[in-house]
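User: Show me sequence and structure for the first protein, then do the same for the second.

Assistant: Starting with the first protein.
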Amino acid sequence: MNMAFATTRGVDKNCVRGLVKTRDKQLPIRYTPEQLRGMFWRYDTNRDGKLSRKELKEAFNCLGSSIPGFRAHRALNRADENGDGYISEEEVEELVSYAVKLGYVVK
């Protein structure tokens, strides 16, 4: 399996993106729930065990979202069960479920 790495303008350059090459074309690789969970927690920059809207926006930017601010807003609406404005450890599974449904792929 060959991996090609590239960066996209406006996307965090520390995010690894790759494609699986076949004979005729490159197939996108979807992020697994475990990879998404790790990605989100990597953006808990203040290490408080909660993801703020700003941290979510940065994570969705890294995932390649063209509208990371909107995705962060929607993720909070969907996963923030107690309404405190943060995604806690107890709420992260709903966040991961949301991101999986969006179908982000390693680019």
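Switching to the second protein now.
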Amino acid sequence: MIRAIIFLLLYNYLIPITASNNTLIITQVTDDSPLTNTAKDIIHTAYKKLGINIHFLRLPAERSLVLTNQSVTDGELFRIDNINLAYPNLIKVPTPYLVAEHMAFSKTKQFTVKGWESVKPYRICFRIGYKVAEHNTRGFNIVLVNTNQQALHMLNSNRVDIAILNRLIGLNSIQSLGFQDIKMLTPPLQTTPLFHYLHKKHEKLAPAVNCAVREVKNIKLSDYCIDVLNKFNH
């Protein structure tokens, strides 16, 4: 019954996609940005090498995990390591193909970031489903919103002191919103590799996807991203 209800809620999205049995639905939880577009390019090219069509479906972060875990959708564009511990029906494609730099952004505060404890004294905002931020700010004064843009609006209106976003997504969103007073604090709060995930029903496909991702990522990534990513491969 729950699965049927979910399908009805996503009817307008899924009907044109599921018309082909050879199309996988891969969810993305961030708006298009340099990071997201690079990820989509890598994953799309990898599946194309395998002769598989994919469709990217934009969903809220937490809902995306629930739907993929329930096999309503087929995979996650990118997630942090070990997300499958909380969502056991997900299989990690083992090659990390992007790196996320988790940054603190502020309008009124200026300080050198020294890990997550350095933002504990402040009012913090980030989007629901941002697992790295959720895990590292337990007990902090946090405000949760639905999107990265909402977090930046909260920050720009001085309703919070710090917004936490991925570096590239944050900088891109600030520019598109025209917020000139919001600055990125450095260094990163944390840097983590990102992985593609599939529902376990595609377990036999995962090794081939992994080989294709490994081949494609070194062609598609910038030199900077490769240098950072290599830290996690050695």
